[in-house]
Amino acid sequence: MTSMFFQKDIETMPREDIERLQLERLRHIVKYCMDNVPFYNKRLTDAGVCADKIKTLSDIQYIPYTTKADMRDTYPFGLFAVPMNKITRIHASSGTTGKPTVVGYTANDLDTWSDCMARLVTAVGANSDTIVQIAFGYGLFTGALGLHYGLEKIGAAVVPSSSGNTEKQIMLMQDFKTNALVSTPSYAQYIGEKAREMGVIDKLHLRLGLFGSEGCTPEMRSQIEHTLNIFVTDNYGMSELMGPGVSGECIERDGMHINEDHFYPEIIDPVSGQVLPRGSEGELVVTTLTKEGIPLLRYRTKDITQINYEKCRCGRTFARMAKPRGRSDDMLKIRGVNVFPSQIESVLMTFDQIAPHYQLVLTREDFSDRLEIKVELSDGSSDILDNFPALEQLHKDIRHGMKTVLGIDTKITIVGNKTLERFQGKAQRIVDLRNKK
Ligand code: DLL
Predict the structure, then answer these.
(1) Could you count the other beta carbons within 10 Å of the beta carbon of residue 14?
(2) Could you give the number of structural domains in the chain?
């Protein structure tokens, strides 16, 4: 078997060496942020922290957290640490206000990114014999290009087929003898379903599924493995931190190895913000140790997970995070697209005929996520229920507004005034039926 390591010396470093390197890099990145990002200069100065005050890794606790709101407030380039002539790529992901979260990469950042990805894909057996179809959407989303360059780096034959166009996707898979698939688990499930329908499921050569970007239950994973006859592995990341490449499973599939030489993870209590002892479950907070374009100190991911620091059976010493159990905020991932209830609310608020009460019902039909938005007519607009053309027009306008802001198609159901549930405390507007069958 060919080597299952891309950078073995780094990936199997003794823990003391990892921690020594992390401390050195942490001190460096704090100074780098102080010197190059006015936002951090102020934050750190206000908190009385500077690189010299960081003597041990646990001194990181004196650095304030960075949040998505900080990204939003500094939109688009306010957290960049280099001038634009040093930026070689920009990616973005959708955010709460409709404005995306923007990240910039220097040439070195792109190299690091492909190394991180190359490690993770090598860890699950991809190599230069791999013919891989990348069925993540190419574009501002980090998924496709992240995997793309990592896989190219190890010499795999990369087919940038992008998402959608499923029948053609399947035709190419047969003709090219594609043996690996990069996609979200839900899209893989759909591909399996479609290939079966087309009667070609036995003609596929797939062996490996490199998935990520959304959660996947063990049941769904084994169903996909069974349908497509593949070995499925999981990748975790987020645009703000880099994209995919932050962590991923090895062949043991016993947690996702964090690229700890580039990312320093902590687990905190999402409510109190207290750092939790090793092994606890809580919100993942990540400090980027080497990023030049947009370094982030103690970024709150909102993902709930836990970290195992024991050496893995594969020989890697990098800590392993559990699959995120969920998010501490309310962001929804629908067909790979980030949707925030506040975005929906902002659209509904533009319609006089609609009351500020709504319910979001998520279902999975034909292996694809569906979002139904139930909206209520405002007091005084009930007449519209008897005026079919007006009702139809309102329905069409809301759906169009949602499509423009969310980027996905939704089902709109208009109900009469005061028929949706009201809440005394925190509203529970989301009914997620996706994994209930
Ligand atoms: O989804 C980056 C990525 C692309 C990772 C391709 C892996 C593969 P964002 O669009 O910024 O970035 O979304 C980040 O997605 O905070 C998690 O809540 C969720 N997420 C990402 N990977 C996983 C995973 C990319 N493997 C947000 N399991 C994160 C569960 C995941 N959730």
Answers:
(1) 10
(2) 2
By three-state DSSP, how is residue 145 classified?
Answer: helix
Task: Determine contact, residues 279/305, Cβ cutoff 8 Å.
Answer: no
Most informative mutation of 236, 301, 302 for ligand 1 (most atoms within 8 A of CB): 236
Probe target for ligand 1 pocket from 93, 148, 213, with the most ligand atoms within 8 Å of CB: 213
Q: Which segments in the chain show pLDDT lower than 70? A: 1-3, 94-98, 326, 330, 424-427, 436-437
Q: Is 376 left (phi over 0), alpha (psi -120 to 50) or beta?
A: beta
Structure tokens at 411: 């089902």
Q: Which CATH number fits the domain that encloses residue 259?
A: 3.40.50.12780
Q: Quick: pLDDT tens for 36-89.
A: 999 999 999 999 999 999 999 999 999 999 999 999 899 999 999 999 999 999
Say yes or no: CB of residue 214 within 6 Å of ligand 1: yes
pTM for the whole structure: 0.82
Q: Which atom of ligand 1 is nearest to the CA of 240?
A: 11
Domain extent at residue 95: 1-325
Q: Tell me if residue 302 falls in helix, strand or coil.
A: strand
247/134 same-domain check: yes
Residue 4 lies in a domain: yes
Is 130 near ligand 1, meaning CB less than 6 Å away?
no
Instruction: Give strand pairing partners of 92.
Output: 102
CB 29 within 8 A of CB 295: yes
Q: Is 143 in the pocket of ligand 1 (CB under 6 A)?
A: yes
Are residues 278 and 350 both part of a single domain? no
Are 384 and 391 a contacting pair, CB within 8 Å?
Answer: yes
CA of 419 to the centre of ligand 1 (A): 36
Centroid of ligand 1 to alpha carbon of 236 (angstroms): 5
